[in-house]
Specification:
Shape of chain C: elongated
Strand order of the largest sheet of chain B: 7-6-8-5-9
Helix content of chain C: over 70%
CATH architecture of chain C: Orthogonal Bundle
Number of strands of chain C: 0
CATH superfamily of the largest domain in chain B: Periplasmic binding protein-like II
CATH class of the largest domain in chain B: Alpha Beta
Strand content of chain B: 5-15%
Oligomer: heterotrimer
Chains: A mainly alpha, B alpha/beta, C mainly alpha
Strand content of chain C: under 5%
Order of helices and strands of chain B: HEHEHEHHEEHEHHEHEEEHHH
Structural class of chain B: alpha/beta
CATH architecture of the largest domain in chain B: 3-Layer(aba) Sandwich
Radius of gyration of chain C: 20 Å
Largest interface: A-C, 61 and 50 residues
Largest sheet of chain B: 5 strands, mixed
Largest sheet of chain C: none
Radius of gyration of chain B: 31 Å
CATH topology of chain C: MetI-like fold
Helix content of chain B: 40-55%
Number of domains of chain C: 1
Number of domains of chain B: 2
CATH class of chain C: Mainly Alpha
Structural class of chain C: mainly alpha
Shape of chain B: globular
Number of helices of chain B: 12
Distance between the termini of chain B: 107 Å
């Protein structure tokens, strides 16, 4: 039929890899470009979209609930129910509707951010002391002006605190996305579990945890920058 | 009298204030509702646009070449080989790795989310087309599968020389202990424990009982851990394996002979939508055929070893192979 | 799209009915696994958190450990446990406990730490020993918040146990990680069951939390609200 193929030498595995040691820097160096970096970038993208859309939806819902009291309960209950459902289960429940795609993953991740962000945003909006509201009313500000110039700035600490929790949680949850579609840092981890390959697990795991820590740190800095007066207080 | 009129004045002015406040509240309710509605609509439009745009674009162009793979290393290698060989010939190729089991990837093929993927001829008949009896030769299996696909709008290109069939392996020490040479010898093992991918249980255990008399097998389905790990750790006595597994290079494991060909014939052939053939012609098909013709058992095991054991990235392994054989 | 989805959901209910023995067995395994992990985590985290809160020490650690716990992806903890300990019960239990301890610990600490200082001082003034203060004043007042942490952890453990099936854990997760064997209907069926399990655990523990809350604070206990206090 055809001639015998040339089988090139693919290179021996280093001792570290063949002995399946805990961490092989040479493997990480060789596989950074093809495997680890793309997974990291995908992970960041997944998180960014989820938190971004969740932010918009939660802010809108919180603004609405701030004006119309009866909105709060339904939104709170729905978001709490979604949050309580285990992530893997929620993914699989969405698969029949949106398929084995990134959309399924994003919808679930967005759902998980809703509880955190909505509750924090609403608490922040409501945290304006009544005297300040009266002073604003006394100064002649309309309700909308009060919202933009007084209530929202005072809600910033809660908003950023909520974002912080949401970002860290979403980064952690996005690893489970690998059960549905091969995106994000969960992919290398699942593959390495199947092959019993320690370095890949440690490398991808460290990246996921590191990403969460870096994101958290950046948001703490943002929190301090936005609210220099509240750095010592605990927001509940 | 003054007091009464004062009180009435107070009440009426209260009512006016009350009405005004109610008006203000209603106005702001409306405004808030409008704002919320606008935000929600905006988000919905953006999301809907983002979802619809790629679909709209797709309709205008030719059938895209979307290579898909199942979720194990051999498939990653095959997928990368096809992808890179086609790209070297100037095609634009999308790549969706790690889709999942046969059922899932076939569903993706039928829905158009994937337009080309490497499949095993026996699996084509037994799983995708749910045939109960399989042909008695490799060529027969290939031709039957091809005919079945062509009735559905897909087709097969040429098959590989190598076959990746199911098999049962045991540790060499186990084989010596019980005198195991063929699959039928497993009858000698009391309370046999066997681990394999979940499909093994429904696909092969009944035939193992009916054709070889091996019954009462305690089956463990693999979910995330490799069967070879379980064998080495002594957690199971036998494992369902595949004949191109690179772990089999080691003398630690013995693959039991299977004289009745129960496991069928499993060459690999690219399954692709017929539209790809008609739109891209021989430049596409001859490239893939040439790649497939080079895949002997030795070549596939070598590449599997590089990816699964030496942990090289599949893309690099495929690239090296194609380059060495002047295909990229 | 929606019609196809409805088909799958109908099939999944059929799966639950057809395979009810399997579902019941797996649900029971899931409950047992989660329960044991939760009890172990409580045994570790509650004494530690309560003592630290009573002494008002170690606040930075105790308060931030919940943040650290939230940053640890479940899959990573399980996979790392696998690299060290292989598959099996130990790995799974270790992963579950590692993930469940932080919220319980932080809540235990904050609950005792934030007990009204006046009440504590009054008790001290009445001549109670520190241990008596802890037992008769701080703990009862801290119980609602402490229990909120346990409630959060319970839901979290049910979710984590689902994923732990990939490293040999038992329970409904075994179905959820095995698409090839159980197909979409099986996975959706198991997903429905585990969701109901989590919601039931949360609601049930919510009732207990309400029962434990002194009458004056009852309205603070929400029916369905996991505790995600952001800690600054």
């Amino acid at each position: 039929m055809a001639a015998e193929p040339v089988i090139p030498d693919f290179g021996e595995a280093s001792d570290c890899v063949s002995e399946n040691r805990l961490f092989c820097p040479d493997w990480v160096r060789d596989n950074w470009d093809p495997v680890l970096q793309p997974a990291l970038v995908e992970h960041i993208k997944l998180t960014a979209i989820a938190v971004g859309v969740g932010f918009v939806l939660s802010l809108g819902a919180a603004l609405l609930a701030h004006r119309l009291r009866y909105v709060e309960r339904p939104v709170a209950i729905v978001s709490a129910v979604i949050y309580t459902i285990p992530s893997l289960a929620l993914f699989q429940l969405l698969v029949p509707v949106t398929g084995l795609t990134v959309t399924t993953v994003e919808v679930a991740l967005i759902g998980y951010t809703l509880l955190i962000l909505f509750r924090n945003f609403l608490a922040g909006l409501r945290s304006t002391p009544p005297e300040v509201l009266e002073a604003a009313r006394g100064m002649g500000l309309t309700q909308n002006q009060t919202l933009w110039r007084v209530e929202l700035p005072l809600a910033l600490p809660a908003i950023v605190a909520g974002l912080r929790v949401a970002v860290v949680s979403t980064i952690a949850l996005a690893t489970v996305a690998a059960f549905v579609v091969s995106e994000g840092l969960g992919g290398p981890i699942l593959g390495a579990l199947r092959l019993d390959f320690r370095t890949e697990i440690i490398a991808a795991g460290a990246l996921a945890v590191g990403l969460a820590i870096v994101a958290d740190g950046l948001l703490v800095l943002a929190q301090r920058a936005v609210t220099p007066w509240a750095s010592a207080r605990r927001v509940t | 009298m003054f007091q009464r009129s004062n009180r009435m004045c107070a009440r009426s002015s209260n009512r006016v204030n009350h009405d005004r406040r109610w008006e203000v509240i209603r106005k702001h309710n409306r405004r808030a509702a409008k704002a919320a509605f606008a935000i929600a609509l905006g988000v919905a439009i953006v999301l809907g646009g983002a979802a619809a745009a790629p679909a709209a674009l797709e309709k205008q162009q030719a059938t895209p070449i979307i290579v898909g793979t199942k979720n194990f290393p051999e498939q990653y290698v095959l997928g990368q080989l096809y992808k890179q060989a086609l790209e070297a010939k100037g095609f634009r190729v999308q790549y969706k790795e790690n889709i999942g089991s046969t059922e899932l990837i076939d569903a993706s093929l039928r829905s158009g989310r994937v337009t080309l993927y490497p499949e095993y001829t026996g699996i084509m008949l037994s799983v995708t087309f749910k045939r109960k009896t399989l042909p008695k030769s490799a060529r027969g299996t290939y031709l039957a599968a091809k005919a079945a696909y062509e009735r559905r709008g897909q087709t097969l290109l040429k098959a590989t020389p190598f076959q990746d069939r199911d098999g049962i392996a045991v540790l060499r020490t186990t084989a010596t202990r019980y005198g195991l040479k063929t699959v039928g010898d497993l009858r000698k093992v009391p309370e046999l424990t066997l681990a394999a991918f979940p499909e093994f249980e429904t696909r092969w255990l009944p035939q193992l009982a009916s054709r070889y008399g091996v019954r009462n097998v305690e089956f463990t389905a693999l979910a995330g851990i490799s069967a070879y790990t379980l064998l080495s750790q002594g957690k199971v006595e036998a494992a369902g394996i595949f004949t191109t597994d690179p772990q089999l290079i080691s003398t630690k494991y013995v693959v039991l002979k299977e004289p009745r060909n129960m496991f069928g014939f499993q060459q690999v052939a690219p399954v692709l939508s017929r539209k790809l053939v008609s739109e891209y012609g021989t430049r596409l098909t001859s490239t893939l055929n040439r790649v497939n013709s080079l895949l002997t058992l030795r070549a596939m095991i070598a590449m599997n070893k590089a990816v699964a054991l030496d942990k090289k990235p599949a893309a690099a392994v495929a690239r090296a192979f194609l380059k060495a054989n002047k295909l990229s | 799209m929606i019609a196809a989805a409805l088909d799958v959901f109908v099939d999944s209910f059929q799966f639950i009915v057809d395979e009810r023995e399997l579902i019941l067995e797996k649900t029971w395994e899931h409950i047992v696994l989660s329960g044991v992990a939760l009890v172990v985590s409580i045994a570790i985290a509650v004494p530690l958190g309560v003592v630290l809160g009573h002494l008002h020490r170690g606040s930075f650690l105790a308060v931030n450990i919940a943040n650290v716990g939230r940053a640890l992806p479940t899959l990573v903890v399980i996979a790392v446990g696998f690299t060290f300990l292989g598959i099996g019960f130990t790995t799974v239990m270790l992963a579950l406990v590692v993930l469940a301890v932080p919220p319980i610990l932080t809540n235990a600490y904050v609950a005792v730490d934030e007990v009204d200082r006046d009440a504590v001082e009054a008790a001290r003034g009445m001549g109670m020993t520190p241990f008596q203060v802890l037992r008769r004043v701080e703990l009862p007042l801290a119980l609602p918040l402490l229990f909120a942490g346990i409630r959060t952890a319970a839901v979290f453990v049910v979710a984590t146990a689902t994923i732990a099936a990939i490293a040999g854990g038992s329970g409904l997760g075994e179905i959820l990680v095995n698409q090839a064997a159980y197909k979409v209907e099986g996975l959706v069926g198991a997903a429905i069951c585990v969701s109901l399990l989590a919601l039931a655990a949360d609601a049930g523990l919510g009732l207990v939390q309400r029962w434990l809350t002194p009458a004056g604070l009852k309205q603070d206990v929400p029916a369905f609200e996991p505790d995600v206090r952001p800690v600054v």
